[in-house]
Amino acid sequence: MYQIENNQVFYTKPLELRLRLKTAHVQHFQPLKDRTISAELTRTITQYGCWHRLNNLMAKDDRTVWFGNQPVPGADPESFVYYHGGECAWGQDKNQLYCFFDKGRHNIKTIKSKNPASFGFFDFPETIGYLRMYAFDEHHVYHLGQRVRKAHPNAFRPLTKKIYSLDRQLITHSYPSSAYYTSENNLYYHGKPIEGADGYTAHLVSLEKAGQAKYLIAYDQHHFYYEGVPVHPRFQAMFDLIPPPIIAHQNSLAQKAA
Q1: Cα-Cα-Cα-Cα dihedral of 94, 95, 101, 105, to 10°?
Q2: Strands of 58-60's sheet, edge to edge?
Q3: How confident is the model over 189-236, as pLDDT tens digits?
Q4: Which residues, including other chains, have CB under 8 Å from residue 48's CB and lie 6 or more apart?
Q5: Contact between residue 183 and residue 141 where contact means Cβ atoms under 8 Å apart
Q6: What is the model's pTM?
């Protein structure tokens, strides 16, 4: 939280010391707000105790952009725009992109971009307005500030998760995943590519029993995957849980590709 007292600027992080921003230009100092978040969503975030992370993380004056009590190196105050992102915050100015983390010590990541003005967030159906783990520019996709290898913004999509009831032995419903994504022939788990996986034939199923999720299994024509790692047939205990229709579908994918 930022405060101005006696012509000085202070920053206080919850449960920590009050720190003075010695070089802050008080006459031009202003906390930054995410203008893309509606008033209704702001109230929702406040109810869950996240207000200090929403609109009290960043500020600027006429010379400096601030993240907490730290100057952001190279940031242009005049063109800088702040976006709240849940696990991280994002920033954009005329020169580059930024990702900020508020866990432990303040961590600032600079992202070089050929076209910073093209920065934006995906409008996926499962996306909550302030949980922005993924972002993009004209050429690249980013996950928590890291470039997602070989992912193109126009092709990047969440894999649809089908909910399979082990009690009823059928698929009950489906919705987009927040863990697995595809971009053309690539498959990703939390922003990291799964080597050798085939995004074109990838499917995702959540195995549930008594209404509780047991395992989230992805599969393509080559393998089954658990937490982004191939599951080999020798792990029989895992395969015993996979319903025969799912195994049959995976086999049919392999046969079509042969």
Answers
A1: -120
A2: 30-31, 58-60, 65-67, 70-71
A3: 999 999 999 999 999 999 888 878 788 899 999 999 999 988 876 676
A4: none
A5: yes
A6: 0.86
